[in-house]
Amino acid sequence: MRVTMIGTGYVGLVSGACFADFGHEVVCVDKDREKIEKLEQGQIPIFEPGLESLVAENVKAGRLSFSLDLAASTAKADAVFIAVGTPSRRGDGYADLSYVYKAAEEIAEVIEGYTVIVTKSTVPVGTGTEVEAIIRKTRPDADFSVVSNPEFLREGAAIRDFKRPDRVVVGAEDERAVKVMRELYRPLFLNETPIVVTDRATSELIKYAANAFLATKITFINEMADICEKVGANVQEVAKGIGYDGRIGSKFLHAGPGYGGSCFPKDTLALVRTAQSNDAPTKIIEAVVAINDERKKKMAGRVLSACGGSIAGKAIAVLGLTFKPNTDDMRDSPSLDIIPALQAAGAKIRAFDPAGMNEAKALLKDVDYLEGPYQALDGADAVLIVTEWDEFRALDLERVKTLLNTPIMIDLRNIYNPAEMAELGIEYHSIGRAYQAPV
Question: Which end of the chain is more exposed for a tag (fewer CB within 10 A), N or C?
Fold first, then answer.
């Protein structure tokens, strides 16, 4: 089938490359000339494992191309995907749908023959109806359907998530559109992937409900971690004990500094605003948002406490800046709250991240960015682990101890074993765990 993907950001580029790998003919369209030129040269604008080779393979095979020309790319398409950004709107937290609606206006001008318009962007309930109205107003004669097809891609594992998803959700109002969507995803039938076919409003809400529930699990286990610290329990064992319950599950029960990224912060806030504007307030999600925001702000206090109550003039090595490993995404990362708070308390920051430093440099000022973890540690008064990159899981701890002025580690991801750190003579602070020496 012929597919047009509007937007070459994270969702658009990954989805376009994967559809091309399924055998479809895909054109990814963007207004950013520099981005399109770089993509045509094989330069990938985001860090996502496996994406560069997947794009290269499908470009070489002639199934994937890039264009600035929406009209030429869309005229003969069977399906046109809208995969543009929907950031939180400044001031009120509602999803900013201006890019989605602009794309709908432009699509209306150029479609020919029956076309399925698919919203891949994360959008509030009712967006599909508004997209349909925009296109219908511009082109009363057009033959088209509007479908909701939310993405469930995890940064760092997006290709696997697209090709072997837990489910595919399709929100459509007519069978003709469903048939096109089934054909697009036909390669997944071999894996017996569940295809959830529903109406548009339900499909749109499924995406927000899923992210809000996962954010709630993260927030729940973080609050359990706080209780564990007060009573001398171990949050990892608590998570294991409840995670074996099939009704709960073990995923997203890892205590830490709070969630961030491109989805959970904006999607939970957008769901709160949608619920409020429809007179159906979601007190649980409102609490999740508030607790998570406060948690990230409190993490700097743990560093101060570990360093004796003052970090004025001290150098703190920060390992990990992105909101999670295997991505260069800095959006709503805990580091954006923690580092400024440490600087306000007088600390000098020495930082390293395997993929996120270019993004971080535009957001975090007066930071010494180093070329590796040991360079960041050299001469620091303490080390703070913010992101659990694999290379931080196997640090040479004897070398760490030698490089630090004082052997203090604050581990916000619970990477290391408290007992082993105690044996090494490293003062170790983690989340929801307290080392108790054997009797």
Answer: C
